[in-house]
Amino acid sequence: MAKSALITGLTGQDGSYLAELLLDKGYDVYGLVRRSSSSSFGRINHFANKIHVISGDLLDQFSLMDAIDQAQPDEIYNLASQSYVPLSWTQPALTAEYTAIGVSRLLEAIRRCKPDARFYQASSSEVFGQPDESPQTERTAFRPRNPYGVAKAYAHWMTINYRQKYDLYACCGITYTHESPRRGAEFVFRKITRGAVKIKLGLAKELKLGNLDALRDWCHAEDVVNAMWMMLQQNKPDDFIIASGETHSVKELVDCAFSYVGLNWQDYVSVDPQFYRPDEPVTLAGCVDKIKARIQWQPKYSFADLVESMVEHELKDLTDGGA
Ligand code: GDP
């Protein structure tokens, strides 16, 4: 019989890639979707008819229990959260309701309705905030610096506590920045790849950026969701950092994207203080020794592949009439 999986956050970047991966593997895929007046199906329209959409909300305990009763999932992936860091400062309590307490509700629902289901919790490198060391490992202390990071730290420890107390198969994957054509255009990776292509096509004249020396650890979202799935196929539940293990500067990214379309970035890029961050974190870089050694995961996309695939996507999108 086909395995079944329930994904929260189905309509987000990671939820949509994970659903496609699980469909390819023959899973019966259920997605929990929050009822809203506007459609949020942009990322999943092309396969929406192949999955089961269940209406529910991390704020509502009974809706989670009903969703699990209906899906009878072998695997549950919690990818839903209030994930926009600046908003976590203006709505800290709501962020905690979704990103922290929502996970308590989900763990309780699993414990009561389907305790043999395997559970993946999306932890984030934001739990490290201002870390004591770089690269960070699974043992690096959490020092979150915003309400989103604090909420993710709570969810992380609740997941581990439910594993220890109730023997649930529950794991946390600590992901770093991950990108794809389905990522919002305001994030720097898409801003740069799309910006370079617009200039190449004569649709823009310049690109204004913030701190070119900022360092990040960038992965492709497809690689990240594959790691999530692999984590739930192991004999024992465990927590892992999911990252590329490499850091690159924004300047390297600019250079790579502009070179790919045959332009010299210095002719088009200027630095604008409005894009500087007041509290730029120290380098966030994940140590991937554990995930490579224990579950033999490694990303398929190199940094250059990621740039290439994003630029190719923008070239296609913008020549097909995108804006
Ligand atoms: P984050 O990892 O969630 O902060 O993702 P972003 O893609 O928004 O930012 C990545 C890094 O790029 C940060 O260190 C920013 O300071 C830096 N950066 C430099 N210029 C820009 C810009 O114009 N926009 C954004 N969003 N980030 C920029």
TrEMBL record:
Please give the family membership noted in the entry: Belongs to the NAD(P)-dependent epimerase/dehydratase family. GDP-mannose 4,6-dehydratase subfamily.
PANTHER family found in the cross-reference section: GDP-MANNOSE 4,6 DEHYDRATASE, GDP-MANNOSE 4,6-DEHYDRATASE
Q: Which residues form the active site?
A: Y176
- What exactly does this protein do? Catalyzes the conversion of GDP-D-mannose to GDP-4-dehydro-6-deoxy-D-mannose.
Catalytic function, reaction form: GDP-alpha-D-mannose = GDP-4-dehydro-alpha-D-rhamnose + H2O
Q: Which cofactor does it need?
A: NADP(+)
Entry's EC annotation: 4.2.1.47
Q: Which InterPro entries match?
A: GDP_Man_deHydtase, NAD(P)-bd_dom, NAD(P)-bd_dom_sf
Organism listed in the record: Leptothoe kymatousa TAU-MAC 1615
Q: Where is the NAD(P)-binding domain?
A: 6-310
Is Phosphoprotein there in the keyword field? no
Protein's UniProt keywords contain Lyase:
yes
Q: Which UniProt keywords apply?
A: Lyase, NADP
Task: Give the matching Gene3D superfamilies.
Answer: NAD(P)-binding Rossmann-like Domain (3.40.50.720), UDP-galactose 4-epimerase, domain 1 (3.90.25.10)
* Name of the featured protein: GDP-mannose 4,6-dehydratase
Instruction: Give the source lineage, highest ranks first.
Output: Bacteria, Bacillati, Cyanobacteriota, Cyanophyceae, Nodosilineales
